């Protein structure tokens, strides 16, 4: 993925483009940067290109955490619909799947370059068998249709939901190249999780405690 100027990335990451974004406002923010100097025109052009790219991707449901109920549709999206995909195989009554949902939704709102999807394992018998999904939650990252990382449970993230943060999950996915760059900080993580709870009315908050082996 092409590199992006740090000043441009900072503007985009602190003001993520959405349906209500004003490109002129973002250009003004960048124009106020005292370090713009000789790179001014190049940075303004890059911001314009990235803004349009973000709008295009959001029109294709990037920037949201989408549940897909048909495994063929999921395979089509992973293989041909998006270069970068993160897929959560979940079960609605598994407590840890609900926790993973919160963090993935928070990442989806920040990382518009990546599609964030989830599918209930009961709707994906073929994929569950093919990908050998046995423990939930199971998060698989794909790049150009090829699996580049698999997170089983909270493996490699934290020992409990109290120590497992959105930043931990972002750092893990960055290692596999399934995210473009670091974007999570303390303030936007808290805001994203708050939006999840406010907008979902508690959806995804499963209650089953014994949530490892589901088969």
Which characteristics define this entry?
8 helices, alpha/beta, globular, single chain, 215 residues, five-stranded mixed beta sheet
List the helices and strands and how they pair.
Blueprint: H1 6-14, H2 23-31, H3 40-59, E1 65-67, H4 71-81, E2 84-90, H5 95-110, E3 115-120, H6 125-130, E4 138-143, E5 146-152, H7 166-175, H8 186-200
Parallel strand pairs: 1-3, 2-3
Antiparallel strand pairs: 2-4, 4-5
Helix pairs in contact: 1-3, 2-3, 5-8
| Percentage of residues in DSSP E strands | 5-15%
Share in helix: 40-55%
- For the biggest β-sheet, the strand order reads 1-3-2-4-5
What's the alpha carbon Rg, rounded to whole Å?
18 Å
Largest sheet: 5 strands, mixed
Poorly predicted segments: 201-206
The helix/strand class is alpha/beta
Shape: globular
Order of helices and strands: HHHEHEHEHEEHH
Topology, number of strands: 5
Distance between the termini: 38 Å
Mean pLDDT: 80
